[in-house]
């Protein structure tokens, strides 16, 4: 018996010594965890430190540290199993973690699936089957619950009261520093956001300086594009604007690879990413152009351009869209912050364009009014000499050779009438009036008279005239106004080729249209005015040019229900095409 009692005492003493040793190890580990937790500088480091050491101490299969997201009303955290971490999110009232978070009390469960509060969806998210659980709240000193610390499935036996006390002790240490860590991260985010806003404001300030200091619209758009590319790290970029009276977009400005080829390129409305953005007002941000369903690969192939990351935002004001700002090929792709700044810059472009358009419209109306007053006076003063010349022309019919004098008189009267018609047309254009007299015209007669008059026009120049009549049937148009169109194109060609060249004029019938074509071998149209060629007062610097000629050409074509277009190549010449319906146009 004494030996049995001695053996029990020895075993009890050994158990006590083992328990003391185990408690000592846990206390040491608790101090170690406390030291590591207090030195953590971010939530990820804190999560990993706590869960890794905790699973070792209580011999758990897995651990989770949940943080509360008050905006989403969720608990988010990471499940640690072995060496892998998996993100998880649940409602802040769901499952055991939700219950502990809501009540603020620790739970120790030996069989999780037998408890009605257990939510098996969490196991399905994590890929882990839970048996036993210790879950304890992470409580701030103020009493507010910040989250839940949870360990799962002890490897040997069930969790004990000692394990629960250890988890609660570690949870109190985590809670003590967790609020500070979160506050530091929040301050970092606030600092980064403030720096980003300062950077955005700095970019907008640069744009405002450009708006205030640049007089030419093209220079302004160019500068804003430079700022956008520099700030957002784009290797290429462009600003595309819609063309008046055309279903297309043109590149107002382009920089980077193949930018010189883009200037002459036009996109149909809705074509490509930029066309879609300009038409819909949507924003497209992709890591590769091929990721967008709107990417038009034919454009890239045509130019030999490699397109990577794309950020494209609409340029406009309110509900009015002018076009699109497209930025390309940023290393690593464009971010959401880049998108916000691009939207701000595009808005500045839209407002700048709107201001310039309003200013130009005011100036255009003022100039039109001035020219109208001037021409009214000129036309009034011309009435007397025109009447006198007309009287002398009539007198010529009674001179020595009646037939010859009559013919000369008729020619003089015809030319004087033509001059009067031209003056009336100019005045009507200034006033915005529409006076078109459509009548049946026999093209063989019209072209014969026109050729004679063109020969007189080219007689004093070094330009060679060639006329091709491909259609001699009948058509319907205002004869005098179409002559006005052709003479404007002819005079422009003569002015463009002071040292000589060739001017080819032709007429054809194509399906239901009469097509007049005028082609010269001059220097071509300067790029800076090519997109505004048919606007009033646009001229390439002619000494006596008014900038009204081509605007009148477009107006007359439009009044006939037709159209006018052009193609130009630097150093190789320009061709114009005036297309009119062969029948009577609809009013």
Structure description:
With 587 residues, this protein is of the alpha+beta class. The chain folds into three domains: 12-186, Beta-Lactamase (2-Layer Sandwich); 211-348, Beta-Lactamase, CATH 3.30.450.40; 434-581, Heat Shock Protein 90. Helices cover 50% and strands 23% of the residues. It contains 15 helices and 19 strands. It has helices spanning 2-39, 43-57, 95-103, 121-126, 161-213, 217-232, 259-262, 272-280, 297-303, 336-395, 402-431, 443-458, 479-496, 527-530, 549-559, and strands spanning 60-69, 74-81, 84-91, 107-109, 133-139, 145-154, 236-242, 248-255, 266-268, 284-286, 310-317, 320-328, 439-442, 463-469, 474-477, 501-510, 513-520, 563-569, 573-581. The chain has a six-stranded antiparallel β-sheet, with helices on both faces. The chain has a six-stranded antiparallel β-sheet with strand order 9-8-7-12-11-10, sandwiched between helices. A hairpin with a 3-residue loop joins strand 18 (563-569) and strand 19. Helix 12 (443-458) packs parallel to helix 13 (479-496). The chain is rod-shaped, with a radius of gyration of 42 Å. The termini are far apart.
